[in-house]
TrEMBL record, chain A:
Residues 243-459 form the Histidine kinase domain. It comes from the Bacteria. Keywords: Kinase, Phosphoprotein, Transferase, Two-component regulatory system. Its EC number is 2.7.13.3. InterPro entries: HATPase_C_sf, HATPase_dom, His_kinase_dom, HisK_dim/P_dom, HisK_dim/P_sf, Sensor_HK_Regulatory, Sig_transdc_His_kin-like_C. It catalyses: ATP + protein L-histidine = ADP + protein N-phospho-L-histidine. It is an enzyme of class 2 (transferase). It comes from Pelagerythrobacter rhizovicinus. GO terms for molecular function: phosphorelay sensor kinase activity. This is histidine kinase.
TrEMBL record, chain B:
This is Uncharacterized protein. The lineage of its organism: Bacteria, Pseudomonadati, Pseudomonadota, Alphaproteobacteria, Sphingomonadales.
Amino acid sequence: MNAHSPSYLARGRTDAADRLIEADELIAGLQRSCGGEIPGVLAIPALLERVRQARIAGTRLGGSIEALGGEGIVRAWVEVFPHTAGDPGCSIGIADWQVSAATRDDDRQAGARHLEIERGVAELWARLDSEQRVLAAEARAPDLAELARKMEQNAGRRWSDSVELPGVVHEQPIHWRLLDGASVRVPGSSREWTATLVPLGAPEPGQSGFELYLSSDAPLSDVARRSDVETPKAPARHLIGQNLSPVLRQPIARIIANAETIRTRLAGPLAEEYSNYAADIASAGQHLLALIEDLSDLEVVEADDFTTAPDEIDLGDVARRAAGILAVRAKERDIELVAPPAGSKAPAVAEFRRVLQILLNLVGNAIRYSPEGSEVRLELSGAEDRARVSVIDQGAGLSAEEQARVFEKFERLGRSGDGGSGLGLYISRRLARAMGGDLTVRSEPGKGATFRLDLPPNPKS
Amino acid sequence: MTDSGTTSTSYSPIEAVLASELARGDLVLGTVGPMLGMLLASHDSALFTDEVVAGVRGMGLHVARQMLTAQAKAAGVEESCVFAVEHADALAEALTANLQFLGHCHVLALEHRLSTHLERSNAIDPVLSPLLQSLTGAPDAETAQLAKAALGAQARFTEQQRRTELPLRELPPSLFEQALSLWRSRATGAERSVVEETVEHLREAYDPQARRVSLLERVAGMIGEGPRSMLSVEHAGVALFLSALALATNQDRDLIALATNESQVGRLALALRGAGLSPEQIAKQFVLVHPGVLVPEGLDSLPSDRAAALLAASDRQALG
């Protein structure tokens, strides 16, 4: 059997640096679920080891590997063939492939493992008494040395006195469970920190005190390491997008997921009203998430260096996709969503993703604010100097004064409680203009509204 | 690898390499039998659990890294950590060839193991024992200060052990000097001034009085006439208990720490009896340290001073 033998289930190819440059889906899928890319360094540890061994030894190597993939534990028989002199890479052949369910740690094991990791990565630890007062502290990072010194000096005072706790609004003293996992700001450190509190003693956790660990997702950069000689950087102009948005997204997504679990009674029977509360929680969470997305988009489009990546696109195609995505929502409100007929085209030069974002916003608004049973239409038109897609609704329409205000930031036209942020149209217009186009509205009260997205036409078409 | 004396001028380079490899292999083969026998005999023993062995290895590496980092800093090497990691393996191997050093690391790992075990099974805090806590609140400022220092050192020790670390400043003076001179003998490539600066720097940071073991010993000695309260694992905590027992029996603390291993039941019983505990009090300690092991019968007929004498007559008075 050689690397080209047809009996292999899957094949792949690596280069001199053991990067996977080509792979069949079986290998590619595992590579991705191990966090790797193609092309990219082999992310499947056992396979990387085999490939490296074969490449260094310069001889064919067969063996079994085991890896944890997305579907479970994969056990495979691999054969690695180093290429000949001119090409320093290897070919990989997979001859057997078995997937079995991964055994999961129980909660206690997972907790213990988590704690060990936390201890391993922590850059400050402290021992606290049962009142969370510091008994001893030590830092492992230069930007925390001052804090550790202060904590030891102020031994006998609560650790939280020496730091800022931006997310905690409770009056002191704070129950330790509220501080476990809290984000912490440390004077003198530009990094964001997370506190881990480990209760000690039994039977009541915490009766003998606590261990405190501070860890950060960000490594101490070279800049920060030299911060004592350089003036600190001016704080970022924007808070949400760069700093908070990734932090907020995860907990909110968790709230939504858990609320959905309760709503759909996945974990067992539940009274109707509680299920409804859970539905409220989930939808409030979704609104919050949408708001965060809007705010971080806002920062992006308002940044001085914002640019788009124009491409040759067909507005008809984008419009049909937008209609497809929102079809279910339209149906829920009994609104007929009419997309441009298949085959109709409006070639333009713009960034596909951004145009889709604008259309989703326009169509989403139309569905949200139109009466039930009405119609929302997407129409294409073109001219010498522009390609246009219009979103036409049969809603209440806008007065001339409202039309003038509707694209302003945070403008809600008196609406509230529907989860809108008042940013969608503002962002959409900024995007349209950044692509060399524009977004305008035509409307009369009582006669619906037409939002028109104009973009540079594609001269080649 | 090539400096083992088997190199002869008559050997070609490949012969020299393979001959010295052969000599190394012979050495390993010579120790396989005794080692395997030892492991089989001490089946299930805490002495050689993976955790303890890994801890010993980690401490050796850490000591090596600290000296190498200091060297790199003195020499102005930009990435001192990288330099230290690159050379740490070889230096650690040389360090752990010293049986006294190895024994000391082993004892620390065992002490930590006992502490975490007792924390889990009996909620005995490895850092903050009732006794130490009451001492930190003592009206006498000096006592309180010393107790607080010991507490801090013990807290650091626990954290270091979790990371399998052993700071140079915690080494006993003789081992500290041995480690320094070993590093020195191997830092042949470094400039003389760099070596001098490194040594000076490391010596400056070393204060034998500030070592955890020194602080614990002073706390144990402070109690003077009332050491009995310290000879309770539950009340004093493992660390202070070991220091107090070592002081009361005039034994090496490392040896006393080793006595808590199940292969050393006799030594522990003699030490406790020699320190003047009654058989009932000894039984209380045994049920914590060795649950399931009965205190040797007839201990009450063994006078305290006879027990101390037996212990003092043991062939083993130090590790290594």
